[in-house]
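This protein record is not my work; I was only asked to verify it. Would you go through it and say whether the fold makes sense for this chain? Here is the record exactly as it was handed to me.
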Amino acid sequence: MARFQKRSTGPLLVCDLMPKVGERLTLYGPGLAARGLDPNRLIYLRLRRETDFLWALEEGLGCDGLAGVAGILGMEKSYGFTESKRLSLRARERGRPLFLLRPHGAGGATAARSRWRISARPSLPDAHPNHYLPGLGPARWRLELLRCPGASPAHWEIGWSHETHHFHMAQGLGDRALPAPDGGERRRAPGIGRP
């Protein structure tokens, strides 16, 4: 989304279908800025009704002044294939990027061109320890491509560089020696995190 925001002078529209209490995903300005998104160029809508949510997404896709559109769904969302197909066609017709974020485990079919799962991974030890957050190294995530025309399912581990504001392939944990379960000879760890 940051890349689309940089290509345009317009803001990003973020529509949030208000979930049940306890399922709240809150946008955090400093966190967005740390990932390259300008929080001053976001239009954030919290909507109570599903029909209003879908209407706002569709109208946003038709607006030439926006850099892109994102929708945040909750677990109870009954968003289905028909709504997904309609939004997908509108995004393709207008040439506008559309991101739909939903929690892992949310049901319903989707007509999205590609489908990804993103999950957190343990951080690596920090080369420059921070005395405020000891033991907390650079953030890492696992990206899984679940579906995309012309591509096979795959997964990657990525990290974030605060210096360059870019994602990169994360260093694997596979080249360090581990003790054997019986305490005897050491063995090599399997190659984890390599695409």
Observations:
- Residues 173-181, 183-195 have pLDDT under 50 and may be disordered.
- The longest strand covers residues 140-147.
- The domain at 1-112 is CATH 3.40.50.300 (Rossmann fold).
